[in-house]
Amino acid sequence: MVESTQKVPEDGLRINLFPMAAHGFFRKYRDLSQWVLIAVFIALPWIKINGLPAILINLPDRRFTFFGLSFWGHDAPLLFFVLASFSLGLLLATSIWGRVWCGWACPQTITIDGIFRRIETLVEGNYIARKKLHEKPFDNEKIVKGAIKWLLFLTVSIILSHTFFAYFTGPGKLLSMALGSPSKNLTIFLIVNTTTLTILLNFGWFKERFCTIICPYGRLQSVLTDEDSLVVAYDEERGEPRKGSNTKSEEMGDCINCFKCVAVCPTGIDIRRGIQMECIACTSCIDACNEIMRITKKPKGLIRYESENGLKGEKTVFWKMKTNIYLGLTLLSVIGLFLFIFNRSGLDITVLRAHENPYQILKTSNEKTLIANHFTLNLKNQSSLKMEVDIIRVEKVEGTEIEIIAATLPVTILPGKSKKNHIFIKFLKSMLEKRSHHKFQLQITTKSKDITQKYIKEISLVGPI
User: Fold this and answer.
1) Greater pLDDT, 343 or 246
2) In 54-194, at which residue ranges do the beta strands (DSSP E only) sit?
3) H or E stretch at 188
4) How far apart are CA 44 and CA 31, in angstroms?
5) What confidence tens digit (pLDDT) does each residue in 21-30 have?
6) Cα 338–Cα 341–Cα 347 angle in degrees, nearest 5
């Protein structure tokens, strides 16, 4: 790791960067991935599954919807597995491919490169025209173009901020609030507008400084990567000495010192100085250099995805102990997430014995001894649909009569709601035989949208020995 090539001017002000547009193999696929990710981000809140947005994070009601599945505040393991899968997956990707997240999937890079920089180019021209416009004194052209650019920036920021909050409120509710009076939803109004301003200043003005100054991921890169990790690297052995350099060597390297790799870099570094913290692995320098190599009729790959060992001509070993540990932990987290989702029932059932005596002794008309057990039945609808819940009142279990009394059942439970019910179970003392308890399967049925499901909850019926 070497120091950055960026310098601070004597006045301490920011150096404004105007990266040149790169074209080539990687640029084509980065454009495709950017448009796909932007489209997915904007479309997801509007896509409805089972009458709910594909993704909804309803914090006030502690309800979370994910592609037709509803989760609630008590589903803490889900959040753990989601965060663990993402974090460990990022560690795994970084240990193998370096800072690929920053260049290809980070919202900061995608929004700046995929939207805001395209608006700048559309309004102000290419990187040379933008730089000249920035350096010239204020005149009609600069004011008009600046006003148009920032007006478009503001429009995009409003769309992005409202889309972001649609994930928390749902698009329908957000749209009604946006069309209504701000005084009716003053808190939401202030939050959305603050977010809009933050997005505008971040993507329109702060830009690459977020990656180089604030984001901690670049600093973690040196810890997570090693000499076998793939990074965007310059082949110094092949490129040096550069054309125009002061050297006595008669044989020159492939680098012609055109500075195209620096011109296209969105963070303003010179990749030829080695691996640097500010490099976001956007591959623009690879495309720019490959184009120059094509023109000069030299082999491509002077700047390429390569490991430090690969640059030295040594074998690159991706799958080693550290990588295998990351992979194993990531797979465990993903498996745990899927197991949690698939084993999670739509109805959460909790059966608790009532606080009074564990049993009561009753008499029948023919002097047979009956035992009564009192239970509290807590039912929580964890699905996205309302359901009708009832108990199967089985007349005979193992040849013995059992009476189940549940005055409050059947009951209709709305999504995310709970119902508390009291049930009494009467049975003959003879069913206990010589034991003080008997295992009994309580059968509960649910019906929602003409779909009937049966749940079985095992409880213990108790009585005197």
Assistant:
1) 343
2) 55-58, 63-66, 69-72
3) helix 186-201
4) 20
5) 999 999 999 9
6) 160
